[in-house]
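User: I'm new to structure prediction. If I give you an amino acid sequence, what do you actually give back? Let's try with this one:
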Amino acid sequence: MTKGALAAFDPFVLLVIQLVASVCALWSAVLLSSIRLLPWSQMAKAGSTGLFEPGLAYAVGVPGLALTTAGKASVIAALEPVFIFLGAWILFRTRPSASAMIAIATAVVGVILVSLSGPDDLRGGSVVGDGLVLVGTAFAAVYVLASSRLALTMPALLLTAIQQSAGLGLVLGLTAAALAGGWQSLPVSVTLPMLTLAILSGLIQYALAFWLYIVGLKGIPPGLAGMFLTTTPVFGVLGGMVFLGESLVSSQILGMVLVLLALFALLRSRSN
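Assistant: Good question. You get back a string of structure tokens that encode the predicted 3D arrangement of the chain. For your 272 residues, that looks like this:
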């Protein structure tokens, strides 16, 4: 959906539309559910995690994507579960087992195969672009680690609304600077279908997805939650087939199988 909406909006402008739609929906749901607001200090702490994602992760990652190739960016983004496991090990002293490390390595290989349709996908781009995507991936991992503790003490809906409100504030400031500097521009005209697509993508990609992820963090450790992120390119490729008419190559099919097998093996070892 985002790929389709980018045909009508510059990346930062689209991100603002998506986050505005998401924040409005989330706070409406908070009000309708009669969830009580928390003291300002707790809400400010929760909001600070939203500065990492969707704030800094996208603010750094979007310019990085403009300076590198989609294939290289996908490979770098595949390191997020690795960052999460390492961060959980350092911060929470939750050392991954040997089976978990094997599953991580297998899933990363699978993600790389899914993300690349051929060797040409790794050519081009710049070191600066690769570095920005890597930093953005690290910010996303920090968000998961920070949210894993907050999710245990706060309603998921309220936490998601606060985080994305903080992220929106940061993105608005960065977008204003990008518009003033001429790096981004407002669309000359917008059709109702494209605006609707942008809003729907925000509701699905940010409001619904992040809320469900926070709900999931209440019941599983951050390392395992990070492993589920390896299924993102699997759904992306399948969505591209269904909605964009894209085709699969054999290496991508193999990658999808590896990702699912790694996740299944990790879940099975945890249940035992």
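You can read the tokens as a compact description of the fold. Here is one thing that stands out. The chain has twelve helices and no strands.
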